[in-house]
């Protein structure tokens, strides 16, 4: 029964590994499916892009409100860079002394000047009451209704002229203000100003409730789309200033990725050669288990997906070395049992039991360290910590389940083990 169970587990591992292979390195006929389903997600340093650091002016913000203002800044900037086509931009805040800073990592952005322009935009929309003939600035009386109360904006078309117009929806507070303004201006004119310039003057026919309005400023399609994007992105809750800018070319990123992959392959091959030469028959199984670990972890990184950076690749390569550590501990414990005269399978079982405590303690220590690094360090270190953490968790499965299952299925229950695992290694 035990042999049949081990065989079924081995078959399942093989099926899962083949599936993982198609996702990691898709080939026909599943190439398009695997690639379109979940492509690799590469970080700024691998795919190229822009790294922008802004300083927020908090001089007019109360101390108690600064954290919430920074959170608002982060949300607004994320919305704005989404219009650049950046897939899941990484925007985070940091405080250095008395300075409040925002960092935007925009992977794949080709036009950094456009990114800077869009992030720094502070569109101002406000409604003003017309008190005169509208020919002088004094004829427009400022109201409290501004763009800060906009909940959403959308692009619509005039049913008569088919011209594009911008439909606005205010939040609950803005809806009340809009209702009050239109209520006291029935039969009068109300002007809409964008960035200090009047774009529409309309006569209020009746009090408007519900918090919805339309702007028909004879816009072109491009202008209307831009306005919708700007309104949906929102105004910045505090002024920001660009203080640092770095651009990484896609060519440099691709070169770094190729070197990282080459280093990982060379390291993996060296480990496998060492294991086969030193542990013989057992080394072959540990090498196969290592390949399965690489496939499973790489597929996991791709499917989740995990953003792969150079630091992340380093963490992944390190986890490969740690994965083989477990096999070495197991084989050494198994060798000790072989010297006592146990049969192969009995030695394997006992070797796994004796090695488990060391493997568990070592991996738990690494997991704790990786978690601390992830939560208390900069974004560059987070990639290293995350891939290391995931790699260690998967390596525990590959070392304990995959390696053990293969050995139990293929190793014969005999006493002569010289061809299986050299027992004279390490003799004093």
Describe, in plain words, how this protein is organized in 3D:
Part of the Sec protein translocase complex. Interacts with the SecYEG preprotein conducting channel. SecDF uses the proton motive force (PMF) to complete protein translocation after the ATP-dependent function of SecA. Forms a complex with SecF. Part of the essential Sec protein translocation apparatus which comprises SecA, SecYEG and auxiliary proteins SecDF. Other proteins may also be involved. Residues 141-238 form the SecDF P1 head subdomain domain. The protein has helices spanning 2-24, 31-37, 44-47, 66-82, 112-120, 172-184, 221-233, 250-279, 281-303, 310-339, 344-376, 379-410, and strands at 49-56, 90-96, 99-107, 125-130, 140-146, 150-157, 164-170, 189-194, 197-203, 212-215, 240-248. With 428 residues, it is α+β, with helices and mostly antiparallel strands. It folds into three domains: 2-41 and 249-410, Multidrug efflux transporter AcrB transmembrane domain (Multidrug efflux transporter AcrB transmembrane fold, Up-down Bundle), CATH 1.20.1640; 49-121 and 238-248, 2-Layer Sandwich (Alpha-Beta Plaits); 125-232, 2-Layer Sandwich (Gyrase A, domain 2). The strands form three sheets. It has a four-stranded antiparallel beta sheet. A four-stranded antiparallel beta sheet has the order 5-4-8-9, with helices on one face. A three-stranded antiparallel beta sheet has the order 6-7-10. The chain is elongated and about 105 Å long.
